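Sample 1 of the test manifest.
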Amino acid sequence: MSLPVAARIARRELRGGLRGFYVFLACLALGVAAIAAVGSVRESIESGLTREGAVLLGGDAEMTLTYRFASDEERAWMEGVSDALSEVVDFRSMVAVVRDGETERGLTQVKAVDDAYPLYGAVALDPPLPLDQAIAGNGAVMERVLADRLGLKPGDSFRLGTADYTLSAVLAREPDGAGDGFGLGPRLILRTAALEPSGLLAPGTLYEVKYRLKLPPGHDIAALEREAGTRFADRGMRWRDARNGAPGMTRFVDRMASFLVLVGLAGLAVGGVGVSAAVRSYIDGKTEVIATLKTLGAEGCTILAAYLMQIGVLAGLGIGLGLVLGAVLPLAAGPLIEPRLPVPADFTVHARPLAEAAVYGVLTALLFTLWPLARTEEVRAAALFRDASGRVRAWPRPRYVAATTGLALLLIGVAAAFSGVPKLALWAAAGILGALGLLVLAAAALRLIARRAARARALRGRTALRLAMGAVGGPGGETQSVVLSLGLGLSILAAIGQIDWNLRSAIQQDLPDRAPSYFVVDIQPGQLDGFLQRLNRDPGVSRVETAPMMRGVITRINGRPAREVAGDHWVVTGDRGVTYAAEPPENTVVTDGLWWPSDYDGPPQISFAREEAEEIGLKLGDEITVNILGRDITATVTSFREVDFSTAGIGFVMTMDPAAVQGAPHTHIATIYADPSAEAAILRDLASAYPNITAIRVKDAIDRVAEVLAGLAAAIAYGASATLVTGVIVLIGAAAAGQRTRIFEAAVLKTVGAVRGQILAYFALRSAMLGAAAGAVAILAGGIAGWAVMRFVMEGSYRFEPVSALAIVLGGALATLIAGLVFAWRPLAARPARVLRARE
Amino acid sequence: MADPILSLSDVTLTLDGNAGPVEILHGISLDVTPGETLGLVGPSGSGKSSLLMLMGGLERATSGRVLALDRDLTAMNEDQLARFRREHMGVVFQSFHLIPTMTALENVATPLELAGHRDAFERAADELRTVGLGARMDHYPSQMSGGEQQRVALARAAAPRPHLLLADEPTGNLDGANGAAIMDLLFGLRDRHGATLVLVTHAPDLAARCDRVIELADGRIAGQTARRAAE
């Protein structure tokens, strides 16, 4: 093989320009641009989060305690290592407003602060008062959504627990808002000192105290974290620092972007089908050139190298175009997006996402062009003398099959590495490959069925339909590329439609049927009897469940640090609810081990949720150390239980024997299952009698989750629409590529007596059949994906959603029909004599 | 003498070329009688194929009149021409022009279906057997040799029993043996169905089998030879 010769041949061939390669370029550019744009936005947000880490966190470092304030010793250490220290108390409560004898209540997330708050950034208020002034004395500020809900304006009074406060201003922006994560209620800020009369921080009440540290310049944050870990790890103190000021937000942006990149990859796969078809058609058109070169003595590998170089240059052009688009679009949209983001973002050109998108582009281009390029080796010099195009083997030589397989595996590996969520990437790859496999089979089946149908007696006399069947089922044609490209795009939309509908119906319809009306926290032990009496005599209440609850952090498992054993499992990453019970609560299913005797008084024992235990790798007899209120309790796992968290009822990962936590201050939680008509009166009576408790209306929480979910579904649908646009480009490419054939067919049909209406009907039927078939397969693939996600990821049930499914079939048929008809005008208008003589 | 089945009066054809309009045919007038076999000969570019296309309504004359079976082809629109062809004409091309996505049987049945024949497939099968392709009915054009493809094209043209058979160099792409076989078939079909045959050819032996031969040069009739009586 001579590479210089191949390069010279490639250069000469490239003089032909880009004609025939517009779809190739558009497919690659669009796919790369989508991935680069998503990656750039992610990088911009993450860079903003890093830059503003201290502001988002509220300090250079933060140490959190549950249920308690820091001891003098702990505080002394924090003051010793920092330039400034701020103490923030965070808990849920209910704001009450009495108006015309009626009390209105709203859930809120209270942030009680000291004079040092905020260490970084500034609180913005409306009217623009300084925070110190706004929350002086019994002054407070709250988010507009809560003030509006309760009809409050600055100067009005409201009640929190058993104390009254005055709303001084509306909270427009809190600098550390994004770092606090997902809250069920809108924010309210007041002074910690002003909380005293509210009675809300009684022993056992659920609250967190966060100590924010402003560290001296040149501090070694990693060393400080290690020191804090050594000193306080066993006291239930949790550490966060400005290196990742909003871990929840970072994780969310990361996951979301990874998912969107995978959707973008699917788009690139759709584009790959178009790229492959374009190269195939180009190589077919070059049969004579290749045969001539072979006649002149060119070896197969020289010719392959020449065409690989040409396609490489064009692919480079497409990828470059995509990278420019992917870099410029977020830059251009940045000023519009940034004010709407809850987090800071640095919209600039980021190299890493562009490099990643380029790697994806190169691998996809290679993956989808190698197979058609390998056909150059199959062309014989004899093709010059007789039409040998129909005799090219369907499968290239084994080395190309192996190279293609290797490239596919490499692409999957790269996606797994780049996305940071290898499992999701592998599942997505399996899904895309599965859908492609299904579509290849479907295209083959469609051709077979159409071929049979074209010969069926039933279709005789129905010329347009029979011609359409013949064209769909016949050799060559666009059946495979249209079904593959449009089908894959529609499959992704169908899967998103099915998953979105199932999730929403699970959360908005199924869950409210099973979920309680209220979830009540902070019921003091002395309040429990009165609380239950009120509910038990209410005919509107069907069921009440209560359980004692305290919060604890798992610090050690079998003597080793818990994070070392269980990694980032959610059970060990924060504080968890712990309960105690002498006997197994009603409906408890012990799957393994034995529950302690009801009068047990020996060494502490613990019953652990079965599924979570399996995930962490716990077995009976293991020892777990839980830090509750600064006290370590080491208990032996003696049983595993089934716990269903999907019903929004009471479910604890850990239940201890009563003696183990004897004397620990705690409160009770309750779930109330009531008739909707009785809900308002229950809330009124309970909140009036026990102002310290917090009742969360489960339906409101569900609505909040559904809102977030709707936003996610919309973002993913936007991502998927890029895939569909690529699918439509491939479709248009296939229709355009087929135009020459259609012009010829129309000419022959006119010659043998077909009128234009019949030819148009034939073209329309042929297009619509392909689109409908792609849509039908998409529903099957989308349904399977939806079922798999609901069954294995969400562990829920799956129901087929027919409306979006029908829209997808119709959409597919309509898209191909329009593309087909747009490209039908020239064939219909062409004069047969000129068309046919041009082919003589 | 019977009324002509085809009558051309002062027909001209001008096409748009890259360098401006190109005059292909200049004032052609001729009559073709029913049952006659007319050969059109002449050097390449003389306009013989264009003349054949005008006769079939596949090309529109720039001026003049083309009458076929007393119908003015120049006054018909595309669809009227298509209907006229399916009722009265069969056309055979040098490059066969079979539809590649259809089998041999489907290619032959298509004009019969378009003409509304309920027995289109039975008649198409009979026609294919007549041209010796009874065993290749389900084959696609790409699976057949050139000679076989031209036989399918012949069957397709003859199946609707047209009054007029137009053939544009039907043996031009075939070797000698295949070409001779195709010509035997073409003349056999014409004899069997009593159709009028207009044939464009370069082959002197083929022209010799025609009743009359018209020679074209530079888009004009340069000469005419009657080999034998048309009756």
